[in-house]
Amino acid sequence: MPHIGNVTIGHNVDVGNNTCIDRAVLGSTEIGDNVKIDNLVHIAHGVTIGKNSLIIAQSMIAGSVKIGENVWVAPSSSIIQKVEIGDNATIGLGSVVLKDVKENSTVVGVPAKPLTGSKD
User: Fold this and answer.
1) Domains of the chain: residue spans and CATH
2) Which residues, 6+ apart, have CB-to-CB distance to 116 below 8 Å?
3) Which of 39, 60, 61, 108 is an S-S bond match for 78, by CB 3.0 to 4.6 Å?
């Protein structure tokens, strides 16, 4: 199936070396203002990344994922297709996110689960 969508990139966005941002099948892959994307990151088709978020080295964001504002995705993390990450969330080092993550929470592990003491 041809990908006939596009990619929109906001203001003051940094994209590191060897990073792949796929265009959407339909619609847009969207990168918000002030987003920082490190080296060796893959952002698949139809992903939305909210403003002021950080996507760190070797992270993989699968298709149609929605990442809120002010989110930190740690190195080597993976987020599967169609998952939603709430505002101000933190994804721990090497985590594999299989379910939605609530805002203001921290998840860690494989599969990713709320960190003890986080507000979930």
Assistant:
1) 6-100 (2.160.10.10)
2) none
3) 60
Contact in structure between 102 and 87 (CB atoms under 8 Å) = no
Query: Could you read off the pLDDT of 92-109 as tens digits, one per residue?
Result: 999 999 999 999 999 999
Each residue's pLDDT tens digit, 9-29: 999 999 999 999 999 999 999
Exactly one of 3, 11, 42, 45 is catalytic; name it: 45
Give the containing element (helix H, strand E) for 108: strand 106-108
For the chain, the straight-line distance linking the first and the last C-alpha, in angstroms and rounded, comes to 39
- Compute the C-alpha angle 18/12/25, nearest 5°: 55
Q: Are strands 106-108 and 113-114 parallel, antiparallel or unpaired?
A: antiparallel
